[in-house]
Design a protein that fits this description.
194 residues, alpha+beta, binds zinc ion
């Protein structure tokens, strides 16, 4: 199983490759010296299917189809085939009904089928957005759902959380020259409570 790991702020941490049968709790991120801890407790069902995120423990996951890079090429080919066919229809190109076009259309058809065969599904965690590839996916997983996603709002960005109390603390210091300790203490306590 391959995991594209994200932290609790949904920032990408890197990729890890794990064997679900071994359930490794400490895994090194690929091409990095960082190590992460995974929680496998009740994470897999009897069939080896993921029940919850091993990174953050969230039980809400959604299934998503992953298309290979080939898709863009096929779109261009299909458009080219359509143009050639349309030109042939209006008699602009004589060979439009010739084997060339048939071959081109057949190639597009084969590529379409290949995409269907090679596209894979992955599971994504609603809370941390870590994604899980190359594992059996239980049937009850649905695609992304707005009502479930609203239960996992994106975490506030850290700079906004840190600057506000700092700014208030400096304001409080400058405000009362005569009564120094009391207002500063109150401001610090108020800031820490957030
Ligand atoms: Zn998660």
């Amino acid at each position: 199983m391959r995991i594209e790991l994200r932290d609790e702020r949904r920032q990408r941490m890197g990729r890890i490759d794990v064997d679900p049968a071994l359930r490794p709790t400490r895994v090194k991120i690929v091409d990095s010296d960082r190590e992460v801890f995974l929680n496998w407790e009740t994470a897999l069902d009897d069939g080896g299917r993921l029940r919850r995120c091993v990174a953050c423990g969230c039980t809400d996951l959604f299934a998503e189809k992953v298309f290979p890079m080939l898709t863009g090429v096929v779109v261009v080919l299909a458009f080219a085939g359509f143009v050639v066919g349309a030109l042939g229809f209006f008699g602009a190109i004589r060979f439009a009904g010739s084997p060339h076009v048939l071959v081109a259309m057949s190639v597009i058809l084969v590529l379409d089928v290949a995409i269907l065969l090679f596209s894979r599904r992955r599971l994504v965690c609603y809370r941390c957005r870590s994604s899980f590839h190359g594992l059996p996916i239980a049937r009850y997983y649905r695609s992304w759902d707005r009502s479930i996603a609203e239960g996992h709002p994106p975490p506030p960005s850290p700079p906004a959380r840190q600057t506000e109390p700092l700014r208030r603390a400096s304001e409080g210091e400058g405000r009362g020259p005569g009564e120094e300790p009391a207002p500063v203490d109150a401001v610090v306590r108020g800031g820490a409570g957030r």
